[in-house]
């Protein structure tokens, strides 16, 4: 995390013999930072005794029932966040500031007891949005409110309402899972009985029995993720923010996490979740926001977004190596003859022809094949017809699939950026 973003309520906990863990106790969030990075002194300068007192004060009672009468659980209004980056100008050695707009004019609301899924490729602004929502980063403009309580004006109250699972967990390798839960339960001012009862429930729910009394240094990625989620849920926050909670996990572990999130939602919890996995967003989310380059391209429920696309989808590869000209020509003819409602060439998928067709016409596939034979494409390489998927929604909004967008975003990052990113993990 850049020094400029280190907020006042961060508290470095030198636990065990691993790296310093910056701990945001009120939201159950930890970020471990490489100790050689110069954050320690920055932190010392920025933190006053009054702020440290704020960290450990007992959370005040908030009457959500009362607040819920007038406010949605989450309201994000015109959120904008930019970053400055020093870059070399082309052809000169002089560096200048480049402004990166990570999130631009983003607005959405989430009712109580619903899951909102933020979907987007790498660098689309998901993490930045979530960090602003978790009070770890201040918006340039716009506002975020939980039950009408503003994240900037009443940050310390807001933090008592949040559970946050960051992209990478900051756990101490020497402490056991149970010791982590005890520590965070204490920092959240849970009384002893409530703490023990919540720990036992979460250990069982998240299938942690075999690991909870072992040091976290021996945990696999899946167990770390489950413990991380348990820490975020320990103080039973009404709002849960999860930044790619199941990235890199096997399907079994993902299902355990999905089950816990669904029952948390069914009990009235509100969840904001970011993910690269279309399936995950589709299964879990009541409402989906599609982001690209910090801008919202579409929002709605999965059913609404798919229905907005109208017809069935057909993907055709004319030949193994189709030229863009041939694919364009086929699209034009199919549209002219009224066989496709929409037709685009997907250049990132070997110039595949992507069509939207009438879902009520049972012979549409055969008619399209016949038309393509007539214009010279006698042996099609592949042909697939399906109902619209979330990836089709993404494709319609951006002209490329989410997977292709991810590959492009990764290719666009310099080697240096990737090295720095890996260092920070
Ligand atoms: N601290 C920062 N300093 C400079 N630029 C940043 C910073 N944080 C994010 N960015 C830039 O803001 C943009 C959005 O990044 P962000 O991490 O929010 O995207 P993301 O959708 O979460 O991506 P990923 O899926 O890879 O985590 C990117 O261009 C990124 O390089």
From TrEMBL:
Is the keyword Nucleotide-binding assigned to this protein?
Answer: yes
Any one Pfam family here would be ABC_tran
Q: Which GO terms describe its molecular function?
A: ATP binding; ATP hydrolysis activity
> Keywords in UniProt for this one?
ATP-binding, Nucleotide-binding
Q: Which CDD domains match?
A: ABC_subfamily_A (cd03263)
Keyword field contains Nucleotide-binding = yes
Question: The ABC transporter domain covers which part of the protein?
Answer: 74-318
- Segments passing through the bilayer: none
Xref: SUPFAM superfamilies: P-loop containing nucleoside triphosphate hydrolases (SSF52540)
Name used for this protein in its record: Probable ATP-dependent transporter ycf16
């Amino acid at each position: 995390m850049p020094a400029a973003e280190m907020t006042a309520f961060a508290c470095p906990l030198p636990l065990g013999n691993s790296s310093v863990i910056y701990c945001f106790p009120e939201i159950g969030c930890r970020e471990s930072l490489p100790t050689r990075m110069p954050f320690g002194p920055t932190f010392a300068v920025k933190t006053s005794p009054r702020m440290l007192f704020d960290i450990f004060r007992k959370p005040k009672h908030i009457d959500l029932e009362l607040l819920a009468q007038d406010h949605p659980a989450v309201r994000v209004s015109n959120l904008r966040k930019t970053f400055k980056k020093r870059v070399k100008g082309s052809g000169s050695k002089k560096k200048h500031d480049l402004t990166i707009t990570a999130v631009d004019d983003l607005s959405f609301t989430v009712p109580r007891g619903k899951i909102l899924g933020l979907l987007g490729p790498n660098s689309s602004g998901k993490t930045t949005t979530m960090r602003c929502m978790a009070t770890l980063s201040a918006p340039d403009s716009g506002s975020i409110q939980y039950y009408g309580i503003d994240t900037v004006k009443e940050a310390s109250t807001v933090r008592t309402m949040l559970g946050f699972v960051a992209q990478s967990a900051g756990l101490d390798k020497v402490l056991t899972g149970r010791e982590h839960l005890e520590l965070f339960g204490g920092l959240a001012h849970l009384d002893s009985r409530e703490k023990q009862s919540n720990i036992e429930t979460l250990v069982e729910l998240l299938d942690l029995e075999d690991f909870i009394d072992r040091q976290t240094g021996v945990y696999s990625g899946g167990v770390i993720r489950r413990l991380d989620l348990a820490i975020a849920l320990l103080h039973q926050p009404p709002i849960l923010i999860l930044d790619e909670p199941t990235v890199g996990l096997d399907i079994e572990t993902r299902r355990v996490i999905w089950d816990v999130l669904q029952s948390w939602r069914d009990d009235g919890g509100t969840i904001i979740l970011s993910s690269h996995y279309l399936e995950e967003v589709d299964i879990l989310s009541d409402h989906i926001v599609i982001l690209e380059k910090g801008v919202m391209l579409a929002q709605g429920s999965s059913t609404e977004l798919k229905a907005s696309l109208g017809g069935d989808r057909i993907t055709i590869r004319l030949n193994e190596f189709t030229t863009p000209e041939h694919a364009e020509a086929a699209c034009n003819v199919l549209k002219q003859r009224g066989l496709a409602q929409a037709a685009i060439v997907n250049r990132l998928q070997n110039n595949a022809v992507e069509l939207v067709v009438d879902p009520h016409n049972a012979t549409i596939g055969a008619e399209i094949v016949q038309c393509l034979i007539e214009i010279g494409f006698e042996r099609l390489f592949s042909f697939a017809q399906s109902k619209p998927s979330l990836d089709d929604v993404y494709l319609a909004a951006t002209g490329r699939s989410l997977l292709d967008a991810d590959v492009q975003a990764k290719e666009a990052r310099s080697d240096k950026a990737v090295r720095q990113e890996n260092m920070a993990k």
